[in-house]
Design goal:
The complex is a heterodimer of chains A (375) and B (462). By secondary structure, chain A is α/β, with parallel strands linked by helices. Chain A has helices at 6-10, 12-17, 29-34, 41-52, 63-66, 74-78, 85-99, 104-115, 144-148, 151-163, 179-182, 189-202, 212-220, 225-229, 237-241, 270-279, 302-305, 307-323, 334-343, 355-365, and strands at residues 138-141, 168-169, 206-209, 233-236, 254-257, 328-331, 351-354. Chain A is 46% helix and 7% strand. In chain A, the strands form 2 sheets. Chain A has a 4-stranded parallel β-sheet with strand order 2-1-3-4. Chain A has a 3-stranded parallel β-sheet with strand order 5-6-7, sandwiched between helices. In chain A, helix 10 (151-163) crosses helix 20 (355-365) and helix 18 packs across helix 19. The radius of gyration of chain A is 21 Å and the shape is globular. The mean pLDDT of chain A is 95. Chain B is of the alpha+beta class and 462 residues long. Chain B starts with a helix and ends in an 18-residue tail after the last helix. In chain B, the strands form 4 sheets. In chain B, strands 15-12-14-13-17-18-16 form a 7-stranded antiparallel β-sheet, with helices on both faces. Chain B has a 5-stranded antiparallel β-sheet with strand order 5-6-10-8-9. The longest helix of chain B has 21 residues, at 311-331. Chain B folds into 3 domains: 3-88, Uridine Diphospho-n-acetylenolpyruvylglucosamine Reductase, domain 2, CATH 3.30.43.10; 95-213, Uridine Diphospho-n-acetylenolpyruvylglucosamine Reductase, domain 3 (2-Layer Sandwich), CATH 3.30.465.10; 217-406, 3-Layer(aba) Sandwich (Vanillyl-alcohol Oxidase, Chain A, domain 3), CATH 3.40.462. The chains are: A alpha/beta (375), B alpha+beta (462). The interface between A and B is large, with 33 and 41 residues.
């Protein structure tokens, strides 16, 4: 079995360290909405122990758990033994893909990125009326979800960058393709090279991303090391905006949803809150926040492959916002905004925005006309 | 399993609540212990009526059935060692009533401990037992194992809060025990018979729990001791003086060393650290108790006494204790915490026993413990792929139990017997007590279908 699962085997000691205490159940969004042991981290680790110890053959029956995980890292945060579940799940997915046991949705995603530059297989590009592939100090990297699903959120961010007079350019970006490694495949070199070259050509020293996942990919993946070698800084838009005082304030009660990719995976908790607290003094935390925040349910390919559970996780999170009676739920990830907005039910009267969207609304309410004029 | 039985179960609980899928069988094959056995079927029940129908059927068909909550139990209670059905009650998770006037809550067994207290906290109330696994553990499991926690010396354990139960018996009869009164002298105390019964007598489907107003003020302090005996004497003096700590925890040298080797906490390398908390509804109350305790620490050779002046300082002091389990869990690929409990005055003796037995078998037991109630958690941390180490661990375990019993102690303070301690039941309980327990098992479950193989209710191995 070990030969069949080379990547998982490398993590054997980690996998053995799961002593099944089950504390992870308290942090797993998928367990909270399904109450199904098999889908929680412990269920996965028991299964992997059986697989690596030769008690269980790899078969299609295992796909439902091993390919159903948002990789949010809530379990790892809760785990007394420090088992890095997301890394283990990614490793076993790659092993399973190599064996030919994979969720068809992810095979499809891999194929789409063979043929197209984004996960939605849309070939027309949205330029948001901004300059593209120009020389500039900053590159604003939009990301697939922003580009094709949450255009308003992107528009708002770009409006604020304009308002702040930031010298930025967009590029004819391709998917950062990091997501492929999450779902059992390899990143696509053509997409990586395309992004690297376009970024270099702008002469920018800093990339601002709207998507926390793209930021992680640029900052951590070996394939994007040339960026680091060239001294190009990568930051999330929330880190950029924290330096500014927008001189706006609202009485509305506001809460903040920590995106897993920004919070647990990058340790960025306070920067978004710094901005939000300045503009919304009536700020309240949900029951689970910071490292204990619950995932919106979109990550790890779950939104595409297991939509029903993905929506259920988003609803669970929205219920936490409803419980504290907020007017606005803010977050810093287009994917979270997308999933949470899709899951909101009619009785939930609060609004869901990215911080940029909310800042723009308040600036507009203040009488400022900041909408970009398409040139 | 016979397809007609699977059909019956699907008709009873719905298609989505019955699974023979591999991933469900595997994930229900283990709990937080080292034991493992796959069931043939996993069934999720959501009502008492469903549980009743299932228990009638398994009674007639003689199918083993193991009830399960969150499976955070550490002694193998939820492992279906004879196969059959695992009855997962985690979807039976409604809080049916919160009555502050009666000071009770009525809950289904699958309610998660933390969820209940998250709901009670804004109302100023608490269900206090506070097991370490509270973020995931279910109330049903708390009752079935008589779970405790760090505040047990002042606030007791689960049994002190269970006022009444609804239980389904093998054969399907539904029985109500106790009620929502604060006291009752009426008949046998059947409620308490089910507390700690580990699912061997019936399936609990509703629980009436007493709740308490939540204290709002705390004081926290830490004392270090160069000699274990001094720490032990300080604890005895606290008891003698009638002081009431809400928490009194020990972290001993092996544990301190492990923490220092694996964290940046840089704790003083002493024989023992005692951590204590007092509480009350006004600060004076907590201070009054803490002053008494600090005085006793100083009179009994404490090297250093630190009193937390703020919440942040209290949190910093707690880090030593709170990091212990995480540190110990990372030392090796297998960790399990023992749960020996001895009379309060015998805690220092038990700590010496740990030293002796550890030396004899070349093992180290990083230990934390609830000194306020004599409950020690020496941890076995070992490599389970090394047969020699496994043998030494097994021998040391038996010897620890023997010595704890000799000191007037018990095998388990709050974890339960399950499979792990079943072979040692006869060390603690005399033949008459064992015979009574086995007779009771027979009365409730004549065909031995409910969680069979646990608690040594079948044959004596002692």
């Amino acid at each position: 079995m070990v030969e069949k699962l080379p990547r998982s085997s490398k993590l054997y000691d980690q996998i053995l360290r799961c002593n099944h205490c089950g504390f992870c159940q308290g942090a797993c969004p998928l367990f909270k909405v399904t109450r199904r042991n098999a889908l929680n981290a412990r269920g996965k680790m028991i299964l992997l122990q059986d697989m690596l110890d030769g008690r269980q053959e790899v078969c299609n029956g295992l796909i439902e758990t091993l390919f159903q995980c948002t990789l949010c890292g809530g379990c790892e945060n809760q785990c007394p033994a420090g088992v890095n579940v997301p890394e283990i799940v990614k490793a076993v997915r790659r092993d399973m893909v190599d064996i030919g046991t994979c969720h068809p949705i992810f095979e499809n995603m891999n194929q789409i990125l063979d043929e197209h530059a984004n996960i939605y297989s849309i070939d027309e590009r949205e330029t948001f009326g901004r300059k593209v592939n120009a020389k500039a100090d900053f590159v604003y990297f939009v990301g697939c979800v922003g580009q094709y699903r949450e255009e308003e959120a992107v528009e708002a961010t770009l409006d604020i960058l304009d308002y702040l007079d930031v010298d930025y350019t967009l590029i004819e970006e391709g998917c950062c393709s990091g997501v492929l490694e999450d779902v059992g495949f390899s990143m696509h070199d053509n997409l990586v090279q395309r992004n690297l070259s376009l970024i270099r050509d702008t002469g920018a020293r800093t990339i601002i991303t709207g998507c926390p996942y793209c930021m992680r990919t640029f900052k951590n993946k070996e394939q994007y090391k040339p960026l680091r070698d060239a001294g190009i800084e990568v930051m999330h838009v929330s880190q950029f905006f924290k330096h500014f005082d927008f001189k706006i304030e609202t009485d509305l009660k506001v809460t903040y949803h920590d995106p897993c990719d920004l919070g647990r995976h990058c340790g960025i908790y306070e920067e978004p809150r710094q901005t939000i607290r300045k503009i919304a003094p009536n700020f309240a935390e949900m029951l689970n926040h910071h490292a204990e925040a619950l995932c919106c349910g979109a990550g790890g390919g779950v939104r595409g492959a297991y939509a029903q559970n993905s929506v259920a996780m988003a609803r669970y999170r929205l219920q936490q916002a409803e419980n504290i009676g907020v007017d606005v739920l803010l977050t810093e990830c287009n994917s979270c905004v997308h999933n949470l907005s899709n899951a909101k039910v009619r009785r939930q009267k609060f609004e869901i925005y990215t911080t940029s969207q909310f800042v723009r609304l308040l600036l507009e309410a203040d009488g400022l006309v900041i909408s970009h004029e398409t040139s | 399993m016979d397809p007609s039985i699977v059909d019956f179960l699907k008709d009873t609980v719905g298609e989505d609540n019955v699974s023979s899928e591999l991933i469900d069988l595997i994930s229900h094959s283990a709990d937080a212990s080292v034991f493992r056995h796959r069931p043939d079927l996993v069934v999720y029940a959501t009502t008492t009526e469903q549980v009743s129908a299932i228990l009638k059927m398994v009674h007639e068909e003689r199918i083993p059935l193991t009830p399960r909550g969150a499976g955070t139990n550490v002694s193998g209670e939820a492992v279906p060692i004879r196969g059959g059905i695992v009855l997962d009650l985690s979807r039976m998770d409604r809080i049916l009533e919160i009555s502050l006037e009666d000071r009770v809550v009525v809950v289904q067994p699958g309610v998660i401990y933390a969820d209940l207290n998250n709901l009670l906290a804004p109302r100023g109330f608490v269900f206090p037992p506070d097991p370490a696994s509270g973020i995931a553990a279910t109330i049903g499991g708390n009752v079935a194992t008589n779970a405790g926690g760090v505040r047990a010396s002042k606030y007791g354990v689960t049994q002190d809060y269970v006022r009444g139960l609804k239980v389904v018996l093998p054969g399907g009869k539904v029985m109500r025990t106790g009620g929502r009164t604060m006291k009752s002298s009426s008949g046998f105390n059947l409620t308490q018979l089910f507390v700690g019964s580990e699912g061997t007598l019936g399936v609990i489907t509703e629980i009436i729990l007493k709740i308490k107003p939540k204290t709002t003020e705390t004081c926290t302090a830490m004392a270090t001791f160069a000699q274990l005996v001094d720490a032990g004497r300080a604890v005895s003096q606290i008891m003698l003086a009638g002081a009431i700590p809400s928490v009194l925890e020990i972290v001993e040298k092996n544990c301190i060393r492990a923490i220092n080797q694996n964290t940046t906490l840089n704790l003083p390398e002493v024989e023992a650290i005692l951590l204590t908390e007092t509480d009350g509804f006004v600060k004076e109350e907590a201070l009054f108790q803490m002053n008494k305790i600090i005085e006793i620490f100083q009179e009994n050779g404490a090297m250093e006494v630190k009193w937390a002046e703020s919440e942040e300082e209290a949190e910093a002091l707690w880090k030593a204790r709170k990091s212990a389990y995480a540190v110990i869990s990372r030392l090796n690929n297998t960790t399990f915490g023992e749960d020996i409990t001895v009379p309060l005055s015998k805690v220092p003796d038990m700590l010496c026993v740990l030293e002796e037995v550890g030396a004899k078998y070349n093992l180290i037991f990083p230990t934390v413990g609830h000194m306020g109630d004599g409950n020690l958690h020496p941890h076995f941390s070992y490599n389970r792929t090394n047969p020699d180490e496994v043998t030494r661990v097994k021998k040391a375990e038996r010897e620890l139990y023997q010595k704890a019993i000799k000191l007037g102690g018990t095998l388990t303070g709050e974890h339960g017997i399950g499979l792990a301690k079943a072979p040692f039941m006869c060390l603690e309980h005399d033949p008459a007590a064992m015979a009574t327990m086995r007779s009771l098992k027979k009365v409730f479950d004549p065909h031995n279908i409910l969680n069979p193989g646990k608690m040594d209710l079948e044959i004596c191995n002692g």
